[in-house]
Amino acid sequence: MGTGFTETTRGMDGLTQDQGYGTDARQGCPFHDVRQKLRRVGLRPTRQRVSLGWLLFAKGDRHISAEMLYEEAMKARVPVSLATVYNTLHQFTQAGLLRELAIDGAKTFFDTDNSDHHHFVVDGEDKVIDIPASAVDVAELPPPPDGYEISRVDVVVRLRKVAG
C-alpha cells in the first residue's frame, strides 16, 4: 500500500526518475491526447508544444524544472531551445495544465499534478515530494485584504538529510 507521497529525483543520467508512491504512473501518452489537451485549454497544438507536452505528461505526475525538461528533449532529439522550453512551461501553467512551484526564488519546478496538494522540498537536491492535502492542517488563515480572495494555499516543507 502506498504512502500517498510522489517523489521525483534526478537519476545518474541527469534525467528525472519518479518513484510513484501511491500513484498510478501513466505510460506512453499518445500525441493525439496531448493535442486534445492543448486544444481544450485554448492552446494551438504546435509541433514543439505537442512534443514537450508528450515528454511532460507521458510519465505520470511529476515535478520538473525547465532545465530537466530541456535535457529530456535533447535526449529525445526534440529540436527546441531552452528559451522555448521556458516559454512553453509558462504557457502551460497559464492555461492551467501545470502548477509552478518556486523554490528559493532561483529554482522553479513545474508540477503536472493540478490536484490540491503540498510539497516537501529536499534542500540541496533536485527532489520534490508530494504531500496529500489531507496530511496538512492549515487551521486558520488571515483574512485577505479588501478586494482580494484566497485562490490557493501552497505549503512547502523543507527537508534535509539526517547526519549519520
From TrEMBL:
A Pfam family the protein falls into: FUR
- What are the UniProt keywords, alphabetically? Cytoplasm, DNA-binding, Iron, Metal-binding, Repressor, Transcription, Transcription regulation, Zinc
Compartments (UniProt record): Cytoplasm
Q: Which GO terms describe its cellular component?
A: cytoplasm
GO MF entry, a single one: transcription cis-regulatory region binding
Which NCBIfam families did the record assign? FeRespRegIrr (NF045677), TransRegIrrA (NF045678)
Q: What is this protein called?
A: Ferric uptake regulation protein
| Organism lineage | Bacteria, Pseudomonadati, Pseudomonadota, Alphaproteobacteria, Hyphomicrobiales
Underlying gene: fur
